[in-house]
């Protein structure tokens, strides 16, 4: 079975590829990247809408099954912002995005900075029909100083009380065990096994 990953985000691509490599039970699945001309207009108002837009665009370009993920961070005291605008929160610059969020929360006590990473994955057929959707949510809080060099996006300021570290300080292996993206991928993986494991190619 041929499956296109609908993304051009290098950090997201690295995580999804790492997750996908750990699939001894998916040897019948062939993964490839969306072509360079893949650049859909992500104008949805929810993570689910944007994931479907990207997956559908990739399927139409490649005539293959496609998997897209849309994700972002939502801060409680900011009424869920930046949400679907996480990647555009500061002109697409991840470092500046972290600094902007720190600035926006400068008058909020650390104990009140609850936040969550959200990820929605959409799997579509070669014709662009939605086959399955999965969601993952990863809880933490926003700290006032960037820490760590791993990950991407808001990971340097996304603090995990369970680990005493930010998402940028834990290993990629650990992140791929507990993150919002890992949760969504596990659901997608189970769906693929249940419905397509008997397809050697398509």
Q: What is the rounded distance between the termini?
A: 5 Å
Strand content: 15-25%
What's the order of the H and E elements? EHEHEHEEEEHH
Give me the count of strands: 7
- Rounded to the nearest angstrom, the radius of gyration is 17 Å
Low-confidence stretches: none
Entry summary:
It contains 5 helices and 7 strands; from the N terminus they run E-H-E-H-E-H-E-E-E-E-H-H. With 202 residues, it is an alpha/beta fold.
SSE inventory with pairings:
Blueprint: E1 2-5, H1 10-21, E2 30-33, H2 47-62, E3 65-75, H3 94-104, E4 114-124, E5 130-142, E6 158-160, E7 165-166, H4 172-178, H5 180-196
Parallel strand pairs: 1-2, 1-3
Antiparallel strand pairs: 3-4, 4-5, 5-6, 6-7
Helix pairs in contact: 4-5
What does this structure look like?
With 202 residues, the protein is of the alpha/beta class. Helix content is 31%, strand content 24%. The chain has helices spanning 10-21, 47-62, 94-104, 172-178, 180-196; strands at residues 2-5, 30-33, 65-75, 114-124, 130-142, 158-160, 165-166. A seven-stranded mixed beta sheet has the order 2-1-3-4-5-6-7. Helix 4 crosses helix 5 (180-196). The radius of gyration is 17 Å and the shape is globular. The termini are close together. The relative contact order is 0.18.
